[in-house]
Write a structure and sequence with these properties.
Number of helices: 6
Structural class: alpha+beta
Order of helices and strands: EEHEEEHEEEEHEEHHEEEHEEEE
Distance between the termini: 6 Å
CATH topology of the largest domain: Diaminopimelate Epimerase, Chain A, domain 1
CATH class of the largest domain: Alpha Beta
Number of strands: 18
């Protein structure tokens, strides 16, 4: 029976049991992909990652990312959490300030700033691809969410590896009070070929400029507690729609308070939305082994 190092890391928070957890299996080169998927379903988290030796020149490690149902080319909180776990695990990277992750989306640069509980890890996400959705999609999305999205700004599909149908609400209290019809959100997600729905509004107070929620029931994730790729999609959406003028190129988003997870994501948007960086803190909650 083989044994592997295992860490569970809470991401976009410095406090255990907040933020968004990711399971990280280290030195996983000899685990079969079908077994990886089975483990991801077993952990029952939004994502589980497997750290392998890099195969691309210039990369420090390779990462495979699985939701409970499928492998993903990129995801935000798994990338931040895995970088945290890798630097704890590998002596040669413990004092690193710059890393390169190899994953399905290519080579992604990461930056590490600070020390201890205040340490921040940031990743530049794949170049966002923004596209229009059908004329009736806004009405259908409003019906699925149980509240009317902004009439002034139409929803967009934003591809950063996962594809998020991204929409803006005029009022933050409406975002906080959403109780979506998950079956309807899943149906719409499948028809539009998106991973899920990310919604947001401008936030007042609490040190955050935006409040965000992400729903991915088509992938058996009713609500992702604090979603890195969802927040990256919002950053690209802001640039594409002109709403970035309200936040500036660097801002903090809050997410997860509705389900008791309260995370913070630092976002920076450049090059008219073609360059988006997300980052935050991470804390190891479980450190041990699993046996296969």
């Amino acid at each position: 029976m083989a044994q592997y190092r295992f860490k569970q890391v809470d991401v976009f928070t410095g406090r255990p049991f907040y933020g968004n957890p990711v399971a990280v299996i280290l030195d996983a080169d000899d685990i079969d992909p079908a077994e990886m998927q089975r483990i991801a379903r077993w952990t029952n988290l939004s994502e589980t990652t497997f750290v392998l030796r890099a195969t691309a020149p210039g990369a420090d490690y390779r990462l495979r990312i699985f939701s409970p149902t499928t492998e993903l080319p990129f995801a935000g909180h798994p990338t931040i959490g895995s970088a945290h776990a890798v630097t704890e695990h590998l002596a040669g990277l413990r004092n690193a300030r710059n890393l390169v992750q190899e994953c399905g989306a290519g080579l992604l640069p990461l930056t590490i700033e600070g020390e201890g509980p205040e340490r921040q890890i940031s990743v530049q996400v794949p170049v966002p691809k923004v596209s229009q959705v059908g004329a009736t999609s806004g009405d259908r999305l409003s019906a699925a969410l149980g509240a009317r999205i902004s009439k002034a700004v139409q929803p967009l599909a934003v591809d950063v590896g996962p594809v998020w149908l991204t929409a803006f609400f005029d009022d933050v209290d409406t975002v906080r009070g959403l109780e979506p019809d998950m079956a309807a959100v899943a149906k719409l997600s499948r028809e539009l070929k998106v991973s899920g729905v990310t919604v947001f509004s401008m936030e007042a107070g609490g040190g955050a400029q935006l409040h965000v929620r992400s729903f991915a029931p088509a992938h058996e994730i009713p609500e992702d507690p604090v979603c890195g790729s969802g927040n990256a999609s919002v950053g690209a959406f802001l640039a594409h729609t002109g709403l970035l003028r309200h936040t500036g190129p660097g801002y903090v988003a809050s997410q997860g308070t509705e389900i008791g997870r309260d995370g913070r994501v630092a976002v920076r948007v450049g090059d008219e939305g073609r360059q988006v960086t997300i980052g935050g803190q991470a804390v190891t909650v479980v450190d041990g082994t699993i046996r296969l």
